[in-house]
Records
---
Amino acid sequence: MSAETLHISEIFHSIQGESSFAGWPCAFIRLAGCGHGCIGCDSAYAERDGVALKVEKIIQRTLAFQAPFIEVTGGEPLLQPAVHSLMRQLCDLDQKVLLETGGFLSVARVDRRVHKIIDLKPPSSGVCDQNNPENIELALAAEPPCRHTFEFKIVIANKEDYEWATSLLHKHQLTTSFTVMMGVAFGQLDPAELAEWMLHDRIRARMQLQLHKYIWDPALRGV
């Protein structure tokens, strides 16, 4: 295993709360650092430096949970180059690896075996202009079965976000080829409103709630 080091915010075992894998037990590796300043970020504590751990130690601690899935998240996990070695080694160990990325950085270097959950930032995030268009291009250019390792997530806080999202989805026809998850910003939008908009527009996307925030206190870390 690699002697490379990553700065880690936390490693924990929980129920996957978002994405098409919601509901599954999952081991989470939350990398430290981001710097993009999304409004309403629910893991802002991961902006801090974190603890330096060798990739080998991270893998050992994560495998101890014996979870069916492992998610690498942040912060923004792709900021640290050694994350690619971590994900590759986990895949080599026959682990099902998920990557949740803010969508600011290209996923071009990510191991093809990793399932990529790309968070597209709407206007309410304040960083909509930082979405990296290359990630959509890479997804559209991927051939099966690699195409199935991409999915997109959009967190909706208001009608403007929803209209922005539907315009983007139609422009690139993302719902034709990919799983697209649309969820509410917790505490900012009534889930019933989003459901009504999606039903009215016959949009071919999946609605999601942040499951972990309904199971536990939404401010609680390590879940």
---
Amino acid sequence: MSSDDMKKRAAEAALGYVEDDIIIGVGTGSTVNYFIDALSRIKHRIEGAVPSSEATAQRLRACKIPVLDLNAAGPLPLYVDGADEINCYLQMIKGGGGALTREKIVAAASERFVCIADQSKLVDVLGVFPLPIEVIPMARSYVGRELLKRGGQPVLRDNFITDNGNLILDVYNLVIMEPLKLEAELNNIAGVVTVGLFAQRPADVLLLGTVDGIRTIQG
């Protein structure tokens, strides 16, 4: 079974968390794209969706799912998104697609966060996947030096501007033993917009697509 098949399994399983007449927060990425495709089949049951990126908004509109603004929608009962890495505590690294800031905002505004992923994303220790950090352009070099002091190897993501007009530094060689502590520390570096560590607001449920079916892990 391919990783795409496992992603589809997880995406389909997330439909079971969609209640009637709600507004759903929708994340960004390849697994979420499968969820949007599945959601389009039951779009008549929901009021609409709040996207975490312009790319997701475009896909939702293409599926004729109403796209709503978070400020107008208010608190969301459900957020569905993927992960680049996730541990057994449902803490994650996210931002491989560069949408980490908006993802973090929508996740924070949601009562329940359902993460969908294939089995390769579940790890014992976070950090093999480079940690994305969104930075204000004028702070790029300063933030990079601060990350070097902490043992990371920051690399500017080439030819990439976030939906917020900022840059992404992908930080390699981090072994993240204390995700909560590191998230708070890095967020306090001047010029950092958002760190792609989702430890303060982890997922509530992980739907993991595996060769044997869906494995559900509760937070």
